[in-house]
Amino acid sequence: MPTLNSWRDLISCRLCWKIAFAVFTLILAVESVILIPSYQRFERSMLRQIADAAIIATEPTLAASGYGTHRELLARGVAKSIGQYGILGALVAGRDSEILAGAGATASLKPQLDLALPMGEGARRSIDGAYLDVAWPSAEGLKIAVRVDTSQVAGEALAFALRIGGLVAIIVLVVTSGTMLVLHRLVLRPVLRLRESSLAAGANPDAADSHIVDPGPRDEIGELIEAHNALLGRVAASKRRDREIAEERARYQSHHEPLTGLPNRAALLEHLRQSRPGPGGAVSLYLVNLLQFRVLNASLGSARCPGWR
């Protein structure tokens, strides 16, 4: 279960947000590509249902009039169909293309009679999508053309797209959040630990090996962490070795004369403190005096007496 610090790290992680945004954009683009054909299929399906409803609503009128044998009855039936199932206009023609009856908006329906195909396959929609002209042949050879209101199709198709789009957005958010959490746990959190370890080791290189990271699972990230820990160990060992060398050099310089390289008074006193006294607690000390050594040192110097080092 993520802790408060884990959530804080996740929210403040710039790399996490970049990956999440990339995943969100990619999934949203794929779902959008899928949504466009779905929208078009939904719109075609609605138009097909409207055309079928118009055909089903008109055929009983033709049957009741004897398929054109009683023109007055046919005309009344056609007029009565106006307004039902969104029918705006209807036109019926005989086998010789003679108009037998018409009602409603029929101004441009006559050319549609020439496109009469079974089941209204020759349906044609207006440019603005306000209506659909459907024409088909009846069982008795008559040609029927009707104009059906389709102004509601655009709104319903848009509502369908919004519903699908909302569902897609929820799916994208869930998938993106899940991906972000998985990446944070398996990849980004170890990377953040490596970052913190590197910064801490850089600030205190002498104790770099105290900032090693638990390698965790045996995968590429774990191998990277192990290499990082080994590097910190080598850095710390190198710093300790450099410090020991520097301390040894400082100790040597403080206990030896720079001109001759011989032990000086400090070295002698330290040696005496560390020496074990002989029988009776006595220590023998021999002093050798170099006459005028200071004058010799001042006149020649270390550059004139390299053999004395």
Overall description:
- The protein is α+β, with helices and mostly antiparallel strands and 309 residues long.
- The protein has 2 domains: 14-158, Profilin-like (3-Layer(aba) Sandwich), CATH 3.40.1840.10; 204-276.
- It is built from 8 helices and 5 strands.
- A 5-stranded antiparallel β-sheet has the order 2-1-5-4-3.
- A hairpin with a 5-residue loop joins strand 3 and strand 4.
- Helix 2 packs antiparallel against helix 5 (151-203) and helix 5 runs parallel beside helix 6.
- The model is unreliable at 304-309 (pLDDT under 50).
Task: Quickly describe the structure.
By secondary structure, the protein is an alpha+beta fold. The protein folds into 2 domains: 14-158, Profilin-like (3-Layer(aba) Sandwich); 204-276.
Helix and strand topology:
Elements: H1 4-12, H2 14-64, H3 71-81, E1 87-93, E2 99-104, H4 110-113, E3 124-125, E4 131-137, E5 143-149, H5 151-203, H6 220-255, H7 265-274, H8 293-304
Antiparallel strand pairs: 1-2, 1-5, 3-4, 4-5
Helix pairs in contact: 2-3, 2-5, 5-6
Percent of residues in beta strands: 5-15%
Structural class: alpha+beta
Tally of contiguous helical segments: 8
Q: Percent helix among the residues? A: 55-70%
CA-to-CA gap between the ends?
69 Å
Task: For this entry, give a set of tags.
5-stranded antiparallel sheet, alpha+beta, about 300 residues, 2 domains, Profilin-like, 5 strands, single chain, rod-shaped, about 10% strand
